[in-house]
Amino acid sequence: MIHEVIQPLSGSQATLTTYVIENSEEMEQDRLRPAVIICPGGGYEFLSDREAEPIAVKMMSFGFQAFVLHYSIKPNVYPLALQELAASVQLIRQNHTQWHVDPKKIIVAGFSAGGHLAASLGVFWQEAFLAETLSGANHEWRPNGLLLSYPVLSSGEFAHEGSFRALLGDAYEEQKEQLSLEKKVSQNTPPTFLWHTLEDGLVPAENSLLFAQQLRSHEVPYELHIFPRGGHGLSLGTKETVSGGAHAIEDSVVRWPELFADWIKINF
Length: 268
Known about the structure:
Shape: globular
Distance between the termini: 24 Å
Order of helices and strands: EEEHEHEHHEHHEHEH
Mean pLDDT: 95
Oligomer: single chain
Structural class: alpha/beta
Largest sheet: 8 strands, mixed
Helix content: 25-40%
């Protein structure tokens, strides 16, 4: 396993940690694998370890390459984290041979507020403000798919207000509407896998439902799972990621990684 930490965007403090399976001369030495770029949650105020390396290791168990982005958070504000994520996709695509990645199978994954970041790239990748920051063409940082786990998406009735306030700072009132991502879905949004729980009292499941509704109306392929039990921030839902309190082991959600892996294998 290659394990290194790099900075994807010049001038920022963000880091990208690689979890790369090396090829072997015994087993298809030119193999290219899907890649999953993981954006942990934390309300844009911290980054959860529970949604970082444990997710990367799980993705590797399916034969996927994994990358964890420790992106900029409060007091940094939008769009710095989004620029860092776009630069990460571009970097991986540019180095796909070195990291044994299929450049047509790069999935951006986000948890909670990290889901907002991942989805932001999914809806804004073609926008001029990203091209103004990054060198190259926008297709270089376009994700091929999205994995959104109990994501913060809407700034409306079902918003997690704290995430938007941390992301936008003093520009909260002015910009919150434009970052309600269910309103920004288009035919250019990549195929998306979403999961949520009905009992999530912090980020209501309507965030995923509203986003999925817009994916359907724009004929973007998606898969949505709403599990009946479990609070917010479950990660893998196993002993590996248990944190006590609301972040308990939850058997009803532990199959989501397998469902996601099947989605990748069937659709990519």
